[in-house]
Structure formats: structure tokens, C-alpha cells
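Exercise 7. Given the encoded structure of a 365-residue chain, write a plausible sequence.
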């Protein structure tokens, strides 16, 4: 299980440059004019995890298979997108198909790169995009509630729940706040997710800064950080230009380049980690002579559900999971050593998988 993150923002903020860096391709045309990306570019990247490398080394695995993340580079939104301006309807539909939104904000001055509104103000840019998504949600809610009238008259319970949730979302949007601010009861979570409202998606603000600000940020990114904190959202500071340069280098050269720039790690790593936190994702591993593999799960996933990520039949016929914590696996030099040290545990259906668990599932035929 990976997840799809849509990269959105106004034209010329660095979305396509960031996408190119993330996927190490030139599939997204980075050009200095609006709507250079007409179709959403989709790229999959391996999620870097040093733990997988270590497990493969210890298990003498023939291959390593990391988990993957999908990025969708969505063309630049503009004011009026909710009414179809700038091919807005198409772009909004692309956003609807993602799990989370990476909102790229221009946090750099450059007279050679035109801003669609002729100024640099990342907070105002964020508000433009949020407003368009909110307007699109309001229009969608009004239409959907109108279509529910007949079912409501027939006392349809599912329709009543849907209408109630839509009404709560509408009230929040009318107050000028995104639908993600609605407090949803546990019993309503599944129905709430089925609404697929744009402003319920988690947002990660990506501050695209100039090269000299990559390590420390700048005044623009500080404003975004304050806005994110106020909203309870996440943010990361990245120089898309640096990331694109790094993506073209060999690993050793990239490490030297990062050192010279005063950076401890590539922005891709920070972005993925922030994305994982945003969606409450974790990783468990399987390791053996054939392969070492990383698997992505939601935090709070039970052992049978985790087995189901590998194959649906594993969940249905789950018996137990032989589990070793990552630190124990490394400390005792693999499965056999951990087993002899009493660090391998037999876990049943109620076990909640922990980040870093190394697992082997036993299941029926």
C-alpha cells in the first residue's frame, strides 16, 4: 500500500520542477508560462528507508523491494478554477483522486520567473487555492443535497446520514473554513470519506525556497510555517531547484552536494516522511534470502489486515504472525539470532502492528 499525493499550486511556483526531481524524470515540462502541464503527470518513487538496506544485508537478500509513493503533478490552478477558469474543472477532478495534497508555495524572489498575480505572497497564494477548493465543494454539496430529496422523503437511512454530513460540511464551508475542520464521529468516518470532498484532504505545505535558503528557510517560509501551525497542518522547506540537481547525481556525488549546501538529507526524504505522518502511515518488513521488502500500512493496523496487504487470502486465512522488532532483528543479527534470544513473538489476530516490525505470516490454505 502506497498513497497518491497531488502536487498543486498556482502556475510557476515550482510544481513541475519538484515533480521532475521526485521522479527523476523530465516527464513534466517545466516552462515559464501558465498551464504548461495540461494532463496530470503521474510518477512513482521508491520510499527511501535505511532500515530496508540493513535488513537485506543481514538476511543476505537477493533483492530489495521498497514501498512506493505515487505523485500526481496537477496543472496550475488559478482564481476562478471552481467555475472552470484555466481548465479548472479538469484539475479539480484530478485532485479528487488523490489521498493528500502537497501544496507548493513560491517562497523565493526571481524577476525571471513570472508570478501569475505579479507578486510573491505564499500565504495569499495558499488562500487563493483553498478558496477555489472550498467553492468547488460548496457547489458539489448543493447539487448532491438536492439529489437526495426524494430518498429523504422515503426515509432512506443512508441518504439521511449522507445529507446530515453534507450539511455539517456546508456549514463549515459557509463559515469560511475547509471541511476538514468538521469533527466527525467514529460511526460516521466511512460515510464521511465516501463524500470525497476536496477540502477534507490532508494538506502539506511545501515551501519552495531559493538555493541559499534551503537549509534555513526564509521570511516567506516562516509565514507559511505560522499559517500551517494555526491550521494544524504540516509544512516542509525545500528548494525544488536543488532537488532537481541532486536527482541527476550519483549517490556519492549527491551526498557531497548535500554536505556543501548544509543539508543533512534530500528534500524527497523530508517530503515523504511528512507525507507519512500526514496520513498516519507506518512500515513493516518481510526479510529472507529471496527478498527484503517494505510494506506500508495505516497506523493501528491489525496483524491480519497487515497480512492482507501482501495478499487478500492471507488476511482471510490468518493464523498468527511471527514478529521481531527491527532493533531486535539487527541487534541479534537476523531471525535465527533473535529467535534464540527469545525476541521472536507469536502474535494473534488482535495484535496491532508497530512501525519497523519484521514479520512472517502463517495462514491456512
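Solution.
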Amino acid at each position: 500500500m502506497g498513497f497518491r499525493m497531488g502536487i498543486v499550486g498556482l502556475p510557476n511556483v515550482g510544481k513541475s520542477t519538484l515533480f521532475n526531481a521526485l521522479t527523476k524524470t523530465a516527464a513534466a515540462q517545466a516552462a515559464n508560462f501558465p498551464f504548461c502541464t495540461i494532463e496530470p503527470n503521474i510518477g512513482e518513487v521508491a520510499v527511501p528507508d535505511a532500515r530496508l538496506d540493513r535488513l537485506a544485508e543481514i538476511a543476505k537478500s537477493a533483492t530489495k523491494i521498497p514501498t512506493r509513493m505515487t505523485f500526481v503533478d496537477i496543472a496550475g490552478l488559478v482564481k476562478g478554477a471552481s467555475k472552470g477558469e484555466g481548465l479548472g474543472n479538469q484539475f479539480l477532478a484530478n485532485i479528487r483522486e488523490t489521498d493528500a495534497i502537497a501544496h507548493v508555495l513560491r517562497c523565493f524572489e526571481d524577476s525571471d520567473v513570472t508570478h501569475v498575480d505579479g507578486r510573491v505572497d505564499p500565504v495569499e497564494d495558499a488562500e487563493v487555492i483553498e478558496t477555489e477548493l472550498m467553492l468547488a465543494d460548496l457547489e458539489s454539496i448543493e447539487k448532491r443535497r438536492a439529489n437526495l430529496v426524494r430518498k429523504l422523503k422515503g426515509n432512506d437511512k443512508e441518504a439521511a446520514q449522507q445529507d446530515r454530513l453534507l450539511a455539517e460540511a456546508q456549514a463549515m464551508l459557509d463559515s469560511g473554513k475547509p471541511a476538514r475542520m468538521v469533527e466527525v464521529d467514529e460511526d460516521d468516518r466511512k460515510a464521511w470519506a465516501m463524500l470525497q470532498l476536496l477540502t477534507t484532504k490532508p494538506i502539506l505545505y511545501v515551501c519552495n525556497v531559493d538555493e541559499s535558503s534551503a537549509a534555513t528557510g526564509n521570511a516567506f517560509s516562516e509565514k507559511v510555517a505560522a499559517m500551517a501551525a494555526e491550521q494544524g497542518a504540516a509544512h516542509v522547506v525545500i528548494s525544488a531547484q536543488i532537488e532537481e540537481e541532486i536527482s541527476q547525481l550519483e549517490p556519492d556525488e549527491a551526498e557531497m552536494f548535500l554536505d556543501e549546501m548544509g543539508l543533512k538529507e534530500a528534500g524527497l526524504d523530508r517530503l515523504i516522511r511528512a507525507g507519512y505522518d500526514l496520513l498516519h502511515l507506518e512500515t513493516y518488513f518481510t526479510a529472507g534470502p529471496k527478498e527484503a521488502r517494505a510494506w506500508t500500512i495505516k497506523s493501528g493496523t491489525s496483524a491480519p489486515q497487515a497480512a492482507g496487504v501482501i495478499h487478500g487470502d492471507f488476511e482471510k486465512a490468518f493464523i498468527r504472525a511471527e514478529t521481531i522488532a527491527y532493533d531486535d532483528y539487527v541487534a541479534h543479527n537476523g531471525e535465527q539470532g533473535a529467535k534464540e534470544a527469545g525476541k521472536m513473538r507469536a502474535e494473534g489476530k488482535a495484535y496491532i502492528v508497530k512501525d519497523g516490525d519484521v514479520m512472517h505470516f502463517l495462514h491456512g490454505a
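Remark. Residues 25-38 have pLDDT under 50 and may be disordered. Students should compare their own answers with the one above.
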